Amino acid sequence: MSVIVFVEHDAGTIKKKNFEAVHYASGIAQKMGTTVTAVILGIVDNAEIEKLGAYGAQKVLHVEDSRLGELHPRAYTSALLTAIEKEGGKIIITLNDINGRAVAPRVAAKLKAGLVVGALTYPDMDKGFVIKKAVYSGKAFAYVNITSDKKVIMLMPNTFPITETTGKTVIEKLVVDFSGKDFGIKVNEVSKVTGEVSLSDASLVVSGGRGMKGRENWYLIEDLAKELGAATACSRPVSDADWRPHHEHVGQTGGTIRPDLYIAVGISGAIQHLAGVNGSKTIVVINKDPEAPFFKAANYGVVGDAMEVLPRLTEAVKKFKQHK
Amino acid sequence: MNDIETVKALKGGEFLIRETAADSVFIPEEWNEEQQMIAETCVNFLAQHVKPNLNRIDEQEEGLMSHLMDEAGALGLLGVSVPEEYGGFGKDFKTSMLVTEKLGAGNSFSVAFSAHSGIGTLPILYYGNDAQKQKYIPKLASGELKGAYCLTEPSSGSDANSGKARARLSEDGTHYLITGQKMWITNAGFADVFTVFAKIDDDENLSAFIVEKDFEGITLNAEEHKMGIKGSSTRQVFFNDCKVPVENLLSDRQNGFKIAVNILNIGRMKLGGGTVGASKEVISQAVHYANEREQFGRAISKYGAIKYKLAQQAILTYASESAVYRASQNMEEATEMLVASGLDETNAKLKGTEQFAIEAAIIKVHSSETLDYVVDEGVQIYGGMGYSAEAPMDRAYRDSRINRIFEGTNEINRMLTVDMMLKRALKGDLDLMGPAQKVAGELMSIPDFGAAEEGNLFGKEKKYIANFKKAILMVAGGAVQKLMAQLGKEQEVLMNLADMLIELYVSESLQLRVEKLVSMRGEDSCKEQLDIMRVYINDAAEKIAKAGKEALNYFAEGDEKKMMLMGLKRYTKTEDINSTQARRNIAAKLIAENKYCF
Amino acid sequence: MKILVCISQVPDTSTKVVLKDNSTTIENAGVSYIINPYDEWYALIRAIELKESGIASDVDLVTVGKANTEPVIRKALALGGDKAIRIDAESTDPYLTAVYIAEYAKSMDYDLILCGKESIDYNNGSVGSMLAELLDMDYIGFATEIKIEGNTAVVKREIEGGEETDSCKFPLVISCQKGVAEARIANMRGIMAARTRPLTVITPTVDDALTSILSYELPPAKAGVRLIDPADMDELVELLHAEAKVI
Hints:
By secondary structure, chain B is an alpha/beta fold. Chain B has helices spanning about 35-50, 55-60, 65-75, 95-105, 110-115, 120-125, 130-140, 255-290, 305-340, 345-355, 355-380, 390-400, 410-425, 435-445, 460-485, 490-520, 525-555, 560-570, 580-595; strands spanning about 5, 20, 145-150, 165-170, 175-185, 195-200, 205-210, 220, 235-245, 250, 295, 300. Chain C is an alpha/beta fold.
């Protein structure tokens, strides 16, 4: 009856957001008086897997199959379904991220389990099984009640602070009877951008809009991001004008992010853009137009020309880090 | 009001002497799904291709405007009302008006678009023979060819028939050789086909020719430096023994002036659509800005002075729009009736258009002056930013101004309004005498102080409008009697009469629109529209009274003057309304919707 | 090759969310509806491109919705597509939506099913993946490029911190995002053709929803911006460190 949590890893390294998923599963398990079983797929060292114990996984089922280093949604689904059946799991936790979205809905459809995508709270079990999630890309929140017996929850990353405990975990190998169909997708080529912070994971983001005036000025955004260890993002007009690659576009028709700090430079703050970023914990807006609507959604505002303010801010961050 | 007959199909100019049933007018709230999709395509086109490039357009970046026309052509927007047999989409006039309205928010682009699809295409479409149409129209409809229209000359603007351009037949009889100078030619810089007006030899009247840019003997002057619509190509075009094949004579010899006048009639009505579209866009921007801009801790849209401006912008625009689509529908119906009576489609279109030339002139004046008000207050609402070239009001303000000048200045159009009305009366096409005599008789009798029809939501306004008609018939009748043949030279009086007619036509169009709207949606969902109607008509009464008084004070004398001034007062009397509250209600809706929303 | 494109109707992106009925519903009066941008700009347009280049023989559209979704369906048909199917049910729960579409699609032999990466109203992005499970198909999510080579789809898709190229034999479901195609504007020809393209309404076998939305909530208003002197960025850094605790 334990709570099942799907744990991803990046070539054998488990990331913070996956610990957060385990931590979240553990919170639910405690409420229900049960335990957490994590499922991890592919080639990962036991030492790495054991870290999950500190976040509340009493047991880890490890499907040690080298083919699972790539995303194969059907194979992942088969593996998770085997684990769920073995553990008698009724509550399944994944992250609301690229891999989560390829797997969790499949599992939910197979189990006829109600699904919540992008959970922001623990389930409120007094009212049923009610979870808060963002809708309209953050313009509102919905309280969704899962009415089915089995439940799949996709947690929004960077929602809960996590702390390590002294908990330990037991690793069990799980053998899954894969079928040929499970590997129908052939991965031909993988290209990863190295040396940059990935936008969806980033806790700090520096983002530029039309006010940057042209792609030739982007070094100012990049310099600040580098100094902060932040990812870079942009508004829709900027990606439409091909100043920046489209995966950097955040907003209602681009990516939705919720970093700890979002610095918006030269972005006026149209409702569509705000929708994608208003889950950010702290927002800094730099804009030369004091009427820019973004200031209304900001915690800190700087009314000034980006070309002058950005180098100063980068310098100030550098100074701060040297003194720390 | 039994002395004014209600008819279903109104003839041009008849609005002065008849009543119209509300269910017979077309109102923009009736656009069907397909028309809405077409409108959306126009809006998307502007948003994607035009708005992001307004600066580049105004800098006349090489090839950009021509490219934008190609893009519009690829979407089919240049051939909306061109018949399908000539590669168009065969949509009705109203639909092409809708396209003109939506693209009217595109600043200089809208000028290039209107010139191409109106004066650039229509002369050939309406007056060309089949070979000419087959040769040019499909390519104009697709945008492969771009059109321009060469009428105005340095010494002949408003007086078009006085042009100096001359054409003579070549010795071998295969070509006309055109020589002359044409000025203010829109799209000249990239046009492939020009409709050129010139007199053949010593003809009394102009003839029209289809001239291709590659014919010998055409040179272009540099781009004009203009106050606004800077992105629109405007040049002088010189013809120096330009060789035009005889088969490119458009219509018959000496038919050019008629062509020019008729094309202008359509152009004037289209200008109405375009300026309404521009007004709506400016209002949306102004409302948006007023909602964002804070002073003394509140959005400026919360202040009454700003609310007044926003409401007034919307009132005038909604009223103008009512007239534009009412007349568009009337014109279309007149054309259909002529076709039904056996006339061919082209001639029916021309006759139908000609019939509504008065309404076209009225619409041209009202809508262009509305846009000028809207942009002026737009600048004001933006305050300091309104004067900055970084905000959109600067361009809107400059671009608006030409609308009162081209397609016949507003002064020419005002005079035409009265002139055409009186000419029709003289010819017996329009019975003004009977109704005018009735009004004169009424002046002598005991005034009818009867209240408006009880229980009719529009009773008061209908009564006001019927009275406006009486006021105009009285003043115009008096002017004709007193000034007789001199009236044509008393331009101030003509302006007065035109203003009265304009206010009448727009008031009535607005009242009919709101009445029909209420019958469609119910009174509760039309509160703001009712407010718009009441405020507009109350203001119109004052304008009519003022213009009438000026005219009477000039030409009438003694007891007769006294009597007519009394009559005027009676015919322009309205009950007081709380127009401040009404404007606040209208503004509140605009502010809540954050855009023009009527 | 037959393509099915799943489209959904969503409120226009400029919509301000207003709650009513004690916050149990989102006000729909005055809201204008559009085709979900990811469905329209990328999935639908790519399908149309494949048809235009002769690769696809059929492009059908499907939506789950009541009669009020028909204007949006015809807008989609104005962009292209041979016919549309409206499954006459409220689209409230992603599972139900997927079940209804699967019920229709299972006997239709589609080679490729395209959808947007998510709808911009409920942001679930799960229908495509569920549909793949229910139809026993493969699924590739977050595609940024789709090419067809014979009976194989070659798909570039987003992965964490980069992209990968996958290939997969038909049939499969692909969810699309920016890069797959360029948004188009409906042209006059398409708008006029939309009327003549069939729109079939089918009634689904009713199933139970697995979730329900009990209530909504609007984000709390920000306390108000604190303006920093543009000349003093040290102060901003200090505040971000000491007050906001984000660096």
